Amino acid sequence: MQWQSVLEFIHRKLRTTNLYKEFNNKQNEHEVMALMMSNDIVGELLTLWLEKQSELKIQKCSKKAKSFKNEGNEFFKKKNYLTSVELYTTSAKYAIFDNGDYSISLANRSAALFHMGEYESCLEDIDVALASNYPTELRPKLHLRAAQCWIKLYDASRADEQLTEAQNLITIDENISADDRENVMRNIGKLTMEMNELLEQKVRKFPDVIKWSPEDLLPPNPMYSSASSVLTRDYSPTRGRYVKTKSAIKRGDVLYVEKPFAFVTLDHVVSNLICVHCCNHIANTGYPCRGCPHVLYCSKKCWSISWLSYHKWECVGYEMSIWKQIGIAHLAVKVFFSSIEIHDNTKFNEVQKLVTNIDKLSTDDLIIYSITARMLVQYLEVYTNVLSTIDMKKCLVDKFMNEEFTISSDVSCHEGKKLFVGTLLLRHMLQLIANGHAITRLNLTDAEGANIFEEQQQRVAVGIYPSVSMMNHSCDPNIMNTFWNDYLIVKAVRNIPAGGEIFNCYGPHFRRMGLKERQDALKNQYCFTCQCEPCTDPELQHFLDRFDALKCLNCAGPLSDVDLNSFKCLNCNLICTADVKNRADDLNNATTLFNLAQDFMQQGKNDEALDHLERCLKIRQKWLFKYHDDLTITYDSLGKVCVAMSQWCDSISYLETSILAVEEKFGLDSIEVANELNKITDICIQYLQRTPDRKSSSYRDIGKKTQRFLRRAEKIMSMISGPWSEAYQEISNKERELSGMLQSLRI
């Protein structure tokens, strides 16, 4: 049975008991959890569910590991190294750690990587294999491979270290056969000669790559962790805690660089592409968990640190498929684990101070969250050793610096520990409802039937950022959030005067969501009624209406509904009536034409798609305001189908018109405009690459236009993000590519 069904069943059962009434009088998380932990029936039901999940565990499997390894070996023999790398990775995913299978899969992968010229990755695989119970008698071969890598990287000193290690092993290990010993010695001699040649040539090794850290963007701020020194926290009865400036801030200034206190990846199609420890992208050489087949890491460092600090306690939960069923509660557990491990008491207490809104929650919500907290306590008690091995007083209780947030439980006894942990877990769950922050990555999707990519921000994880959480909400924020792996980097998107408040957006933005929808969303999740400018200024309250408006026949401005048959122009104030039936029939026909065009594009019938879209456009231009969303997507679709038909100039023209609407809706310097500029330059560059007549005026004009588009896109991306952004890097690469093309043509 799925967790949600169990949760609802227990909740219904509790509604019929006196316990339900008692929840109404509880003032804090400790009282709520004390009541929930006292109910034996709840405990028994949770025990049954956890036992069932344990029976259904998805674990490592030697048979699968061996099958994938053997398949990888076959592709390796065929010199299809890339496929063999993928298969060895999958083999390691299912391989058991203790018997050496895991290390052998990675050792095999290192061989494929060596042949691919991926020497740094090969060396990292060798390091992990050697740290993972790799058979002693096979270790000399790995050290020889490592020596080969260092020779390829022109580092004779490190190559010599590996050769010495190989020689020492064959000297002391009696399990190595005479033939193998002779073979290793022969290879040592050969590699020693190569190394000596390297030394004689005095070839310099490749310089170590200087690693950039996001924390270099801001100096440390002891008064406000992870924040710029120009920011300070304040308090008022109406605003609560908020952030303001001590001096004027310019657009583009970095305001925060914060690593999350904890985060968890979301369970969807890209989960296996994201490192669960640092949120970095994982290439073909991910490192599977040593205990479960569900988690991948991007490096040896993340693989090692994760296990030692928290994954040893959550690993079984992955096998039991718990985490993907409980939503934000998984992050609450991760916050708990991070709280145990952290040595910075200030950061620990910053998390404890985050609001829970417990006084604003309904009794039903409190019961549901406390049931989940109790289930997690029982998981930790039965399926991990955290309650029996961790000194709760030293690792948690003694870290509290403010009695207001201290939890009154006797952690010297087992039941007291359970209540203490349950209280913390409930607190973190409630905090995360109001303070959890989505972590996003740029996702490139191939447009249907066209050789162009569309960029979308995709949520890949959710984390807790205590310093950034101090900002209040506005539906028109003055900051922009970007990510470098799990680091949240916040920049100002407007000039902000000294003493001005810094506003984040909690999700509902006035350029993307209507007034009522925003107000309801904020009230339901964050328990407040927004009073920001877009929510109170009459001119901004209905901002989105113009992008869903009919066209004024007098001035072509947007019409606002007065009643069913009459409209008022928002530009010229003319009151007019419309032929409702003809308008509705025409627009319904346009929708039909548009949908058919999409079908034709998917089928590769581009001529039919173009015809239908042109007819659709004519109707929509007649009735709709020029920035209507339906017109914008029509221009965009026309741009795509023209690309598929190699009608580059027409495509560029349509997309330029589409960009005008995006500018009007999202702002001239918005990420949406930058993404559209990035997209249109894909088409411009395709035109410049594929058009044979490179001396024509149109070729020259589009070359210059592409330069302008890219410069503008780079300017926007520099202001709202920076070189760490994938979109910024893509734009910079295209600028270099274009510069080379145009220089050769002297444009």
From TrEMBL:
TPR repeat extents: 590-623
Domain MYND-type, residue spans: 275-315
Cellular component terms (Gene Ontology): cytoplasm; nucleus
PROSITE patterns: SET (PS50280), TPR (PS50005), ZF_MYND_1 (PS01360), ZF_MYND_2 (PS50865)
GO terms, biological process: methylation
Keyword entries, A-Z: Cytoplasm, Metal-binding, Methyltransferase, Nucleus, S-adenosyl-L-methionine, TPR repeat, Transferase, Zinc, Zinc-finger
InterPro entries, per the entry: SET-MYND_domain_protein (IPR052097), SET_dom (IPR001214), SET_dom_sf (IPR046341), SMYD4_SET (IPR044421), TPR-like_helical_dom_sf (IPR011990), TPR_rpt (IPR019734), Znf_MYND (IPR002893)
Domain SET span(s) in chain numbering: 228-507
Reactions listed under catalytic activity: L-lysyl-[protein] + S-adenosyl-L-methionine = N(6)-methyl-L-lysyl-[protein] + S-adenosyl-L-homocysteine + H(+)
Any one Pfam family match given in the protein's UniProt record, by short name: SET
Intracellular or extracellular location(s): Cytoplasm; Nucleus
SMART domains: TPR
Single Gene Ontology MF annotation: protein methyltransferase activity
Summary of the function given for this chain in its UniProt record: Protein-lysine N-methyltransferase. Monomethylates PRMT5, modulating its transcriptional activity. May also act as a histone methyltransferase. Plays a critical role in cardiac development. Acts as a key epigenetic regulator of gene expression during cardiac development via its dual activities as a methyltransferase and negative regulator of HDAC1.
Alphabetized PANTHER family for the sequence: SET AND MYND DOMAIN-CONTAINING PROTEIN 4
Protein's name in the database: Protein-lysine N-methyltransferase SMYD4
Biological source species: Microctonus aethiopoides
